[in-house]
Amino acid sequence: MISHTTARQKAKDIVSQMTLEEKIDQINFRAPAIERLNIPDYNYWNEALHGVARAGVATVFPQAIGLAAMFDEDLMTEVADIIAIEGRAKYNQYHAQGDHDIYKGLTYWSPNINIFRDPRWGRGQETYGEDPYLTARLGAAFIKGLQGDGPYLKLAACAKHFAVHSGPEADRHSFDAVVSQKDLYETYLPAFETAVKEADVESFMGAYNAVNGTPAVVSPTLIQEILREDWQFKGHVVSDYAALEDVHLNHHFTETAAETMALAMKVGCNLCAGNISHHLHEAINQGLVTEEEITDSVVELYTTRVRLGMFASDNPYDQIPFEANDSDEHHARSLAAAQKSIVLLKNDQLLPLNKQALSSVAVVGPNADSLEALRGNYFGTASRYTTFLRGIQDAFLPTGRVHYAFGCHLYNDHAESTLSRKHERESEASLPVNIQMSSSHVLDLIQRLKANKVMQGMCMVQGIKKPCSYRRSRSDY
What we know:
mainly alpha
């Protein structure tokens, strides 16, 4: 694969032809075209947590926490390779049509290798769980699959969110994660270190939160000392969306956007995923930053683009056709991943069911026919969905009858209508049906779910975890 050194020299040649204004424009994630240099516009924001996301139909794999439950590095790499093939297929088609919009590029902001320490976070489903070692192994496997081993990067992976980003979600834009050195190096950093040293990840995303008093996106300790000096990271660093704005607006670490952007350039946060990069003009005029420091960041960004083969004429990935997306072969591997992700916690001689001995079954619960439970978040559009209910119906009908009841809402008192009494779907779920447990057991189950508000803390189905005792905070970024 093209080395960082070779790509950086090519990037320097390209950037040396840019004016200061053009370089400042390139610091934003919505990088505009430079027509005189034949450089098209480019948007760095793309998502691929468990399949190419937000870009139309794609093969959708189990949510990240479900993929972790496979405990299979090789299959994780295969999953990521399929995602990379489909990402390239989409990019080639969009690029040929001159469509360079968001979610249609080659720099993918995945995987999320944060540690899922507290279930109240609400976004733990994006991670590989609470174990630093497992997260490190699976994160490296995913990155290797996404980036490939060809002459150029197949896609550019991004290790996020650096660092100590595990909630609370509602306060993420101002929260200061105070962490001991022992906990930092034993819990929160190992997966990121492995991503650099073993998987040669191409980019890092700085977190919203501060770490021990300094916003992560402008932390000299995290970005300069640990990431670039200790680990010898060679790629570029991007902020989480609007995280640089948080530096002055919510952390109050700087006073102005110009000061924030100047600090970002000095520390090495190269790409502004947000809307304040233009304040570098003010920063230059005020003597807060030099053109050389801005140039260094643009070179880092273009090194990645060179490593992706975006300026090459011999890139084999340019030949991946759109038909490679959402193929039957990819569907089969998604099914294999889903099957391997299932974890049976308990079996009181109930499974496997004897289909011939049953005349009917009951499927009860708010996730039984939920597309959201299949999609997770940061999801693509599957060409076909099979919910729990639909799958059981396909397997059981027409030899028997399948009874379905919503039962209760996942976290609200009313399942459908606030005009009703609370838990208005409970009686339907407790109707007697001819299954291998008595209706009293069904009623007991519903009562226990109700009493626990669908299990206090978290309710997990197919790797989908949702906070049940309070509404979710925004999780768009």
